[in-house]
């Protein structure tokens, strides 16, 4: 046995000496050329071909890498994928365990009787002297090994199958995230300007308190958008849609956005315009959003000073900026109205697919009409005061009252006063939550509050009739909005009528 180890040590010494001799005699260029031709010779006689799928493609995240990662994750527990070592992870607020391949490990997958090998490759990135943005320390990717005779089949049907499966998993099972843009456009270690948190909002269209007909119309519009990819391609339109949610505070605009995300299974990107310095930074943020997402700008009339250009009170050179200050021409460190319009409807808005843009505002009449036209905001949704249907939904959500639990007299009383009360879902919810342990008292106090508001509104109406100059400014603003060639006349009129709280 001792002689065996001695012989092995001698052999290793000879090999090391030969390696040193080759490195000293032959230049690196010659060694590289020989290695290159040997690899080509090996590939010529090999029955396999290899494809690399890196995590980062240039400056953008490779969507195919994410799809493969998610596909292998979902299939790890099935018999079609085999691996001796798996990583198990669970996020802080996640309810599911995630299976991933270990670093530099491989697994087999079978698709339509064709077997392929996936290898998860992880290497350390070489230190760079200069980089325009932070890069991850590790370089990740997948290597796909297939037989040459199956190459055409795999590159078409199999990769399409992976993409479709991953999209379906994202829609149904994967935890959704709420993203917000980093302050000043700062990027994390992976070069992403968005900071994610798990999205666990419980709002759904079933619990959303609003008119049932309007709710059904929105759900059908969302479903039609998701299922009509071929229509958008055929007509040459970008696969995106815009929604404007407007109405008084507390009418459920944020809950509507959460219900849309839960209904479609989309992530939400909450864009804080006050943290964006320029139009170019705004475009970069858009490029870093994923498909199947909702991009939200809440209270857009408060985020930046986007005044209605038809408003005579606006002076020339009015500031239209978020982080910096400047006019609509833009000075490189400001957000301009044209930059925001290009963000929602320009060429850069087409860098991705299946996106929904949602703007919210409490005062639609303050927005520039260029933001409201079709193509930017395709559907205007007025989130108004509670209706009779809304009250019944809230009574069911907070008190558990189903149809028929309340007496006909109580329901008729609600139906009589709810429209005149002009009460928001937030106000109704607060009243019900406060008395949720005593259902009868909650209903009784809600009726008392509604009647008090009816009386207050009637008194305000009498005061308005006695003072002719009381509402002159509102009437002038209403006339300017209704005379505008932009938008829907009935929607603007409805917004102006309902945006005041008495």
Automatic annotation (TrEMBL):
Gene3D superfamilies: P-loop containing nucleotide triphosphate hydrolases (3.40.50.300). Residues 1-24 form the signal peptide. Keywords: ATP-binding, Hydrolase, Magnesium, Nucleotide-binding, Signal. The keyword Magnesium applies. It catalyses: ATP + H2O = ADP + phosphate + H(+). InterPro entries: AAA+_ATPase, AAA_N_dom, At3g28540-like_C, ATPase_AAA_core, Mitochondrial_chaperone_BCS1, P-loop_NTPase. Its cofactor is Mg(2+). Residues 239-387 form the AAA+ ATPase domain. Belongs to the AAA ATPase family. BCS1 subfamily. This is AAA+ ATPase domain-containing protein. It comes from Eruca vesicaria subsp. sativa (Garden rocket). The lineage of its organism: Eukaryota, Viridiplantae, Streptophyta, Embryophyta, Tracheophyta.
């Amino acid at each position: 046995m001792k002689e065996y180890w001695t012989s092995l040590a001698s052999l290793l010494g000879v090999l090391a000496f030969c390696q040193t001799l080759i490195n000293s005699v032959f230049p690196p260029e010659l060694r590289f050329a020989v290695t290159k031709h040997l690899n080509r010779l090996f590939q010529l006689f090999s029955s396999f071909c290899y494809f690399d799928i890196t995590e980062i493609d240039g400056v953008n995240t490779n969507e195919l890498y994410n799809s493969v990662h998610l596909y292998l994750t979902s299939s790890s527990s099935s018999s079609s994928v085999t691996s001796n070592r798996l990583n198990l992870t669970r996020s802080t607020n996640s309810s599911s365990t995630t299976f991933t391949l270990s670093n530099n490990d491989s697994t087999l997958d079978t698709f339509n009787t064709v077997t392929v090998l996936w290898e998860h490759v992880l290497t350390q990135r070489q230190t760079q002297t200069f980089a325009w943005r932070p890069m991850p320390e590790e370089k990740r990717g997948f290597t796909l090994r297939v037989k040459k005779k199956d190459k055409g089949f795999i590159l078409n049907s199999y990769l399409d199958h992976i993409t479709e499966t991953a999209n379906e998993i994202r829609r149904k099972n994967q935890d959704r995230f709420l993203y917000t843009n980093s302050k000043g456009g700062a990027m994390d270690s992976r070069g992403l300007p968005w900071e994610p948190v798990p999205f666990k909002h419980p709002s759904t269209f079933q619990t959303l308190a609003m008119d049932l007909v309007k709710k059904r119309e929105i759900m059908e519009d969302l479903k039609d958008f998701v299922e009509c990819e071929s229509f958008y391609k055929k007509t040459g339109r970008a696969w995106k849609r815009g929604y404007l949610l407007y109405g008084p505070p507390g009418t459920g605009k944020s809950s509507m956005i959460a219900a849309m995300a839960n209904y479609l299974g989309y992530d939400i990107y909450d864009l804080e315009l006050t943290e964006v310095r320029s139009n170019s930074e705004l475009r970069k943020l858009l490029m870093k959003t994923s498909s199947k997402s909702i991009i939200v700008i809440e209270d857009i009339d408060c985020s930046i000073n986007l005044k209605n250009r038809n408003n005579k009170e606006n002076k020339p050179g009015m500031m239209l900026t978020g982080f910096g200050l400047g006019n609509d021409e833009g000075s490189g460190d400001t957000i301009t109205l044209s930059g925001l319009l290009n963000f929602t409807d320009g060429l850069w808005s087409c860098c991705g697919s299946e996106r929904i843009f949602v703007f919210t505002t409490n005062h639609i009449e303050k927005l520039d009409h260029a933001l409201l036209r079709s193509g930017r905001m395709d559907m205007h949704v007025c989130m108004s005061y509670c209706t009779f249907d809304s009250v019944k939904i809230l009574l069911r959500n907070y008190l558990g009252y189903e149809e028929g639990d309340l007496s006909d007299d109580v329901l008729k009383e609600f139906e009589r006063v709810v429209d005149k009360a002009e009460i928001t879902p937030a106000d109704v919810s607060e009243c019900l939550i406060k008395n949720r342990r005593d259902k009868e008292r909650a209903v009784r106090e809600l009726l008392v509050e509604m009647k008090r508001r009816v009386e207050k509104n009637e008194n305000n109406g009498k005061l308005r009739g006695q003072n002719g100059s009381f509402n002159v400014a509102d009437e002038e603003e209403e006339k300017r909005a209704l005379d505008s060639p932009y938008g829907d006349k009935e929607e603007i009129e409805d917004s102006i009528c309902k945006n005041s709280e008495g």
